[in-house]
Structure formats: structure tokens, C-alpha cells
């Protein structure tokens, strides 16, 4: 296993610990990380991204994430498919996702 | 690591995980069969969630050839090499072990899998993501031998994809490229229609009197209205009356012949059989002569799923929806195209999010926690032309024991702006990279 592995694991362990410390989620609501993982196919694993076409979500302030997703959901902000995706999540769920991405650096 | 060391590592792990009780728990062994989209993503996310787990992928091929984006090889937009994905990152960055071998059977009581290379690997949890098997014989006159040499399918990418590309390039001027579309359920629902579009676009430059004809056993398909609007705008395709009422103002059929045509089931598009020698497709509407013939036959779960007894009468694998644990065998999870996942399409994006939910469920179960509330997604971009992107986008939840789409509208709106359409194509190309990274790197 290369030297790259160690810092990665460190970051991951912190991330996992932080995810566990977030306020209790409503019954029947997926965790922030579980929801965030559905974004990773375009926005990068844990929101980390090297490409320019999609917005990297890691470290995004909660407010910014919530504003963007709220505007996508209401149609206020034009989108290709983010309007459709945003309509799959409730306010509380968006907040949990926002917290997850804000803690990712 | 060379092959022998790899194999020894595999054998060592097998011994360690055979220890019973708590010792085994601390370093539980998860074996994954199939290093495609589902298997690779599961391995990576297992390691992300719990680096102490021992995770081994058993995969036939040393490198993966990605199916998504593979139709671009036909038009020369991508080369076969561009489809090749390495397993190095999963091994070196995440510590996933690999055994390059083919699984032939298993013992669900002893919890051991067997390989063609006579290896035996023990597991605490087994993930199976074998993809699809193409049922060539379901079409009278067709067979794997014919597909490999004369009438390629190219739905599992490889030599057939390359053969089809050569055939297209060598097609006589004014010839007809016929695609036989599959019945549902099948891998990548918009795929056959995107392939038709890309070939039509290619012909305009390289074989301007050539034609593309889709023969279909269905009357509709995923993205149908938006894809046809793209064909209309780009290639002068006339939209059938039953799709016309939803079209934006100004969309008008011309009645002129177009280089792309879609013959549906209700118009006789269902294939009864093919004559490989003359490249004739016998449809319910009569015989159709092709110059290049691309048959995408009916599909079932990958052969491995049958060998392990994981399928039911549908030819796919029933699973407990929350975790994708097999309904047949405990501690075995079936994900990706091979699984029965209700409203979720058989797409790479689906396989990727199923892998993540299942990885977390396995980590939770091994730690004695109940599996968490699941959520899955699917976003598939598709092209009507190189600069014309459309998509299907979904969020899925568990509702009443079934996987249910909860996000409402799925397609690009029919009144989308030129910018949205252009961006869709940009995102489609970007997605090929970001998605491969999320699964394999
Ligand atoms: C033309 C085309 C375009 C597509 N476009 C898109 C798209 O734009 N977006 C999208 O989301 N999806 C797309 N897809 C679909 C996507 O590629 C599949 O849904 C996805 O690959 C399924 O993943 P999987 O893990 O189930 O199977 P696969 O990715 O096929 O992986 C299965 C793996 O298992 C291995 N295997 C099988 N049996 C054994 C055995 N006995 N022992 C060891 N190894 C074994 C195989 O070698 C293979 O590597 C497209 C598909 C095609 C054909």
C-alpha cells in the first residue's frame, strides 16, 4: 500500500466521526453521507473533484449549498437536471447534506 | 505485485477470515465478484467506511472495459483504449486486493467461493455484481458465434464493439445500418437510441446517403420524446403523431424521408428472426435488408448469477430491497444490472449508488447496527448528437418494500433552451470522467 493511503485514511476517519456527531436524523431519513453519496457520480467522491464542469461540493458553506438546492428545486435557478434531483429531497434532508459537504475539506 | 504474490495474498486472507468469532469480526473479509461499476464502487466505499475491512475483488479481466460511452467507438469519437480502466488506484490508494480469476461456484454454508484457477476464498460477506448475459439464442438465427464474427451486438464492450466500428466505416455508400433494439428490462435504457443518433450524425459527414433504422419490440423507450425531438431538429426526423401533442410550438413534420427511422412494435418492428448470411431481419412487418446489422438481444443476469443459483424465473436476481441481500442466500448481496431493483433502471449510475448503499449496510451489519435508511439515484446523460445532450434523472427511496422514484419529472423538458441542451452534452462528456473516478479511483 502506497504512502498516499495514510493521509486518505486519516481524512476518512475524521469524516466518519463528524458524520456520526451530526444531530439525530428524523426517522426514515437517510444520513447526510448516504444522500451525499448519490451526488458523487458527477460531483466527486465526498464532493472532491478535479474537473471543471461540475461544482465541487466539499467545503461548500452550508448556506450556499442550501440556497443553490432551494433555487434549483423551486425552478428559480435554471438547470439541466439539478431541478429534478433537488425535488427528490426535503428541507431537512438538504440541511443534512449541506452539513456533510461543509465538513468535507 | 505479480500474479503469484496476488494469489498468495488471496489465500492468506482466506485463512485469516476463516477464524471464527470476534477475531473475524474485527477484520471481516468481504469478497466481491466482478470488478465492474457495481463491484469496484462497493470495494472503494467499503474501504472508505471501514479501512480495517479486508476487501478482495475477484475479476476475470486485468483491466475493465467500460460499457458507458462505448458507442462513441463506433463513430471514432473514442478509441477502444479510451474505454479501458485500470484497477491500480483501487489497489494502491484504497488497499483493495485483487484476484484475477473467474468464479465458477460457491458453498453458501461454508461461505467459500471457488474459481476456475482452483482457488478457494472464504468470506463473511459476499457481493456479486456480474453484469448481464446476452441471450443471443433468444433470436432465431442468431448466436454468439455470429455475433463475434458477422452481426455484432457490442452491448458488453470488447471485440464486438471494434468489429461493429469497422463494419460501419466500411459500409457501402447509401447503405442501411440496422439496430435491433432489445425488450425490457435491459442494460442502459436510452443506449440503443443514443447509438442510433451518433451513427446518424457520423453518416452525415462520412456516408451522406446512408440510413439508420431501429427495429423495436417496444412502443416507447426511456427519453423517447426528448430524443425524438433531438432527431427532428438535427436530422429532419418526423415525430409520430402520438408524441406530437407534447412538442413545443413550431415543431412541424415535413413528410420528407429522414436518415433515421424508428419502427415500433405497433408498426411491425418486433424481430422474429434473422438470416445471418443475407443480413435480413424478419420482422412482424416483413423482411428488412441491412448492410450493417447490430442486434442487441434480450438480456438476463450475468452467467455467474445462474451458476450461484441467485436468479429466479425472470432471469434476474431477487433481493431484499433495503440492502440488496439475496432473497435466496444469506450474506450474499447482488447489485448492479443483475439485480431486481423495481423502478431503478439497469444503468451504471444505478449500480454505483446501489453499491454505496450495500457497502454501508454491510459495514453497519458487521458492526451490529441495523442498516440505515437507503437512498439511491440515477442520472444518465444521453446524446442526440455530439452537441445535443438530454438525460434521465431520478432519486429513489424505499416505499412499502419497493424501490420507488420520488423526484417526479425525469427528462429534459421539451421546451429546454439551446444552452441547456448544449450544456447537457458538455456534462455527458465530463460525467464519463467524474463517474469513472468515483467508481475506480
Ligand atoms: C452502449 C452503452 C452505453 C451506456 N451508457 C451508460 C450511461 O451513459 N450511464 C450509465 O449510468 N450507464 C450506462 N451504461 C450501462 C452501464 O455500463 C452498466 O449498467 C454497468 O456497467 C453495470 O454495472 P455492473 O457492475 O452490474 O456490471 P459490469 O460493469 O458489466 O461488471 C461486471 C463485471 O463482472 C465480471 N465478471 C462476470 N462474471 C464473473 C465471474 N464469474 N468471475 C469473475 N468476474 C466476473 C466481468 O468481467 C465484469 O468486469 C451503458 C451501457 C452500454 C452498453
How would you characterize the overall build of this protein?
The complex is a heterodimer of chains A (about 100) and B (about 450). Helices cover about 55% and strands about 0% of the residues of chain A. With about 100 residues, chain A is mainly alpha-helical. Chain A folds into two domains: about 1-25, no CATH class; about 30-105, Cytochrome Bc1 Complex, Chain D, domain 2, CATH 1.10.760. Chain B is an alpha/beta fold. Chain B has two domains: about 5-130 and about 300-375, FAD/NAD(P)-binding domain (3-Layer(bba) Sandwich), CATH 3.50.50; about 135-295, 3-Layer(bba) Sandwich (FAD/NAD(P)-binding domain). Chain B has helices at about 5-15, 20-25, 35-50, 90, 145-150, 160-170, 190-205, 225-235, 240-245, 305, 350-365, 420-440, and strands at about 30-35, 55-60, 65, 85, 95-100, 105, 110-115, 120, 125-130, 130-135, 175-180, 210-215, 260-265, 270-275, 280-285, 285-290, 290-295, 300, 320, 325, 330-335, 375-385, 390-400, 400-405. In chain B, α3 runs parallel beside α11 (about 350-365), α3 packs across α12 and α7 (about 190-205) packs parallel to α8. Chain B is globular. The interface of A and B includes residues 2, 45 and 85 of A. Flavin-adenine dinucleotide binds near residues 103 and 337 of chain B. Flavin-adenine dinucleotide binds near residues 34, 67 and 68 of chain B.
User: How is the CATH topology of the largest domain in chain B named?
Assistant: FAD/NAD(P)-binding domain
DSSP summary, beta strand count of chain B: 24
Number of helices of chain B: 12
Poorly predicted parts of chain A: 1-24
The computed structural class of chain B is alpha/beta
How many domains in all of chain B? 2
Say what the CATH topology of the largest domain in chain A is.
Cytochrome Bc1 Complex, Chain D, domain 2
Name of the CATH architecture of the largest domain in chain B: 3-Layer(bba) Sandwich
Hetero compounds: flavin-adenine dinucleotide
Sequence of secondary-structure elements of chain A: HHHHHH
Q: Helical proportion of chain A?
A: 55-70%
Name the shape of chain B in a single word.
Answer: globular
Structure class of chain A = mainly alpha
Main sheet record of chain A: none
How many beta-strand runs of chain A?
0
Amino acid at each position: 500500500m502506497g504512502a498516499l493511503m495514510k493521509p486518505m485514511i486519516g481524512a476518512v476517519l475524521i469524516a466518519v466521526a463528524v458524520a456520526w456527531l451530526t444531530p439525530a436524523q428524523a426517522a426514515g431519513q437517510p444520513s447526510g453521507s448516504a444522500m451525499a453519496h448519490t451526488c458523487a457520480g458527477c460531483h466527486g467522491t465526498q464532493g472532491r473533484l478535479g474537473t471543471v464542469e461540475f461544482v465541487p461540493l466539499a467545503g461548500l458553506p452550508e448556506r450556499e449549498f442550501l440556497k443553490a438546492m432551494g433555487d434549483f428545486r423551486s425552478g428559480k435557478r435554471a438547470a439541466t437536471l439539478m431541478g429534478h434531483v433537488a425535488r427528490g429531497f426535503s428541507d431537512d434532508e438538504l440541511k443534512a447534506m449541506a452539513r456533510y459537504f461543509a465538513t468535507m475539506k | 505485485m505479480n500474479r503469484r504474490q496476488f494469489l498468495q495474498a488471496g489465500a492468506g486472507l482466506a485463512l485469516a477470515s476463516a477464524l471464527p468469532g470476534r477475531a473475524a469480526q474485527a477484520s471481516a473479509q468481504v469478497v466481491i465478484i466482478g470488478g465492474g461499476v457495481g463491484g469496484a464502487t462497493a470495494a472503494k466505499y467499503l474501504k472508505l467506511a471501514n479501512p480495517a475491512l479486508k476487501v478482495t475483488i475477484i475479476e476475470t479481466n486485468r483491466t475493465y472495459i467500460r460499457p458507458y460511452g462505448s458507442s462513441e467507438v463506433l463513430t471514432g469519437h473514442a478509441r477502444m483504449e479510451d474505454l479501458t480502466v485500470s484497477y491500480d488506484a483501487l489497489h494502491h490508494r484504497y488497499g483493495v486486493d485483487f484476484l484475477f480469476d473467474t468464479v465458477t461456484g460457491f458453498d453458501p454454508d461454508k461461505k467459500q467461493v471457488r474459481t476456475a484457477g482452483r482457488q478457494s476464498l472464504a468470506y463473511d460477506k459476499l457481493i456479486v455484481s456480474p453484469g448481464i448475459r446476452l441471450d443471443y439464442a433468444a433470436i432465431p438465427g442468431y448466436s454468439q458465434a455470429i455475433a463475434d464474427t458477422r452481426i455484432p451486438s457490442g452491448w458488453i464492450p470488447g471485440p464486438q464493439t471494434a468489429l461493429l466500428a469497422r463494419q460501419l466505416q466500411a459500409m457501402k455508400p447509401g447503405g442501411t445500418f440496422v439496430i435491433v433494439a432489445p425488450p425490457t428490462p435491459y442494460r442502459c435504457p436510452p443506449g440503443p437510441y443514443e447509438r442510433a443518433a451518433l451513427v446518424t450524425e457520423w453518416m452525415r459527414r462520412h456516408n451522406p446517403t446512408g440510413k439508420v433504422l431501429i427495429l423495436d419490440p417496444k412502443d416507447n423507450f426511456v427519453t423517447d420524446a426528448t430524443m425524438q425531438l433531438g432527431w427532428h431538429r438535427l436530422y429532419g426526423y418526423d415525430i409520430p403523431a402520438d408524441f406530437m401533442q407534447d412538442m413545443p410550438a413550431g415543431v412541424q413534420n415535413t413528410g420528407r424521408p429522414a436518415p433515421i427511422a424508428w419502427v415500433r412494435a405497433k408498426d411491425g418492428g418486433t424481430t422474429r428472426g434473422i438470416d445471418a448470411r443475407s443480413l435480413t431481419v424478419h420482422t412482424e412487418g416483413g423482411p428488412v435488408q441491412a448492410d450493417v446489422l447490430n442486434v442487441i438481444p434480450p438480456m438476463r443476469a450475468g452467467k455467474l448469477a445462474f451458476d450461484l443459483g441467485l436468479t429466479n424465473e425472470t432471469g434476474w436476481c431477487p433481493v431484499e430491497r433495503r440492502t440488496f441481500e439475496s432473497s435466496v442466500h444469506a450474506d450474499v448481496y447482488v447489485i448492479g444490472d443483475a439485480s431486481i431493483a423495481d423502478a431503478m433502471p439497469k444503468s451504471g449510475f444505478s449500480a454505483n449508488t446501489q453499491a454505496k448503499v450495500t457497502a454501508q449496510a454491510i459495514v453497519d451489519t458487521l458492526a451490529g447496527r441495523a442498516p440505515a435508511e437507503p437512498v439511491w439515484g440515477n442520472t444518465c446523460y444521453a446524446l442526440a448528437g455530439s452537441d445535443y445532450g438530454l438525460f434521465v434523472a431520478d432519486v429513489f427511496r424505499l416505499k412499502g418494500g419497493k424501490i420507488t422514484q420520488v423526484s417526479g419529472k425525469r427528462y429534459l423538458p421539451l421546451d429546454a433552451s439551446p444552452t441547456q441542451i448544449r450544456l447537457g452534452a458538455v456534462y455527458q462528456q465530463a460525467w464519463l470522467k467524474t463517474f469513472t473516478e468515483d467508481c475506480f479511483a
